[in-house]
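Budget justification aside, the reviewers requested a transparent look at the raw inputs and outputs of the sequence design task funded under Objective 1. We therefore reproduce one unedited record. The lines immediately below are the structure tokens for a 253-residue chain.
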């Protein structure tokens, strides 16, 4: 028969053991889920977006590739299409690849837009700064991908053959679109960069979306945001079509 004193000691020890067990389980949970809290370290990457209004950072000095925002295509109050020049300029270092990015708010481009972009390309060429190509940044809804492909085919026909064509893509494409439709872009674009962020924050459950990109059969990169939470998906990095990460730089939060 257990004495009263022994019973109290046993009870106290069980309480301590339970507490220690709960603490251990909680710490283990945090360790398993550290990707939810791991902030992106930009020094581990070498490809970046530099947007208008964002200050240049030291990481750009050693960057291999810079996607530079050069303009936005918008519709004004008279329903006319025009390009707003962002006047964003950098002097790249030797062997750095530069892409000129155009943020599109409409796909109803007229000849004036093509003329303006062509003028910009010639401006860089005159200054002996090689341009890899142009990137179209447009948040096309998944259900309108077919129309977007038709638009991009028009861009490809117009764009001089010595320049490549890049586009940004939404994570939703991989989840809610027929891979056959997306893979049709292989004849038109040289790469897609799927964005894992919205606004200034990483999209929740981004890894679930990334796993669904396995059916993509053309070169793609993953866009990630500075100061956002990030944990690489190792299975994705083994995909032969995966070509790396591009960090969207931000001013310090």
């Amino acid at each position: 028969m257990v004495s009263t004193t022994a019973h109290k000691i046993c009870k106290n020890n069980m309480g301590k053991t339970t507490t220690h067990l709960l603490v251990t389980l909680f710490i283990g949970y945090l360790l398993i889920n550290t990707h939810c809290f791991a902030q992106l370290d930009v020094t581990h990457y070498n490809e970046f977006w530099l947007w208008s209004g964002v200050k240049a950072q030291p990481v750009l000095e050693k960057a291999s590739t810079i996607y530079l925002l050069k303009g936005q295509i918008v519709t004004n109050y008279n329903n006319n299409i025009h390009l707003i020049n962002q006047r964003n300029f950098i002097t790249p270092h030797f062997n750095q690849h530069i892409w000129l990015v155009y943020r599109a708010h409409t796909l109803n481009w007229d000849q004036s837009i093509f003329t303006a972009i062509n003028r910009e390309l010639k401006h860089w060429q005159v200054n002996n700064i090689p341009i890899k190509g142009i990137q179209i940044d447009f948040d096309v809804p998944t259900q309108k991908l077919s129309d977007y492909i038709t638009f991009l085919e028009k861009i490809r026909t117009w764009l001089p053959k010595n320049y490549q064509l890049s586009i940004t893509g939404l994570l939703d494409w991989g989840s809610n679109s027929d891979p056959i439709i997306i893979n049709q872009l292989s004849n038109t674009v040289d790469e897609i960069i799927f964005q894992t962020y919205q606004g200034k924050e990483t999209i929740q459950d981004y890894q679930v979306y990334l796993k669904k990109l396995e059916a993509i059969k053309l070169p793609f990169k993953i866009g990630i945001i500075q100061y956002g939470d990030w944990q690489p998906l190792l299975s994705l990095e083994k995909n032969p079509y995966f070509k790396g990460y591009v960090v969207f730089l931000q001013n310090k939060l």
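Helices lie at 4-32, 111-126, 145-158, 171-176, 179-183, 206-211, 234-237. The longest strand covers residues 65-75. Computational costs for records of this kind are itemized in the attached budget.
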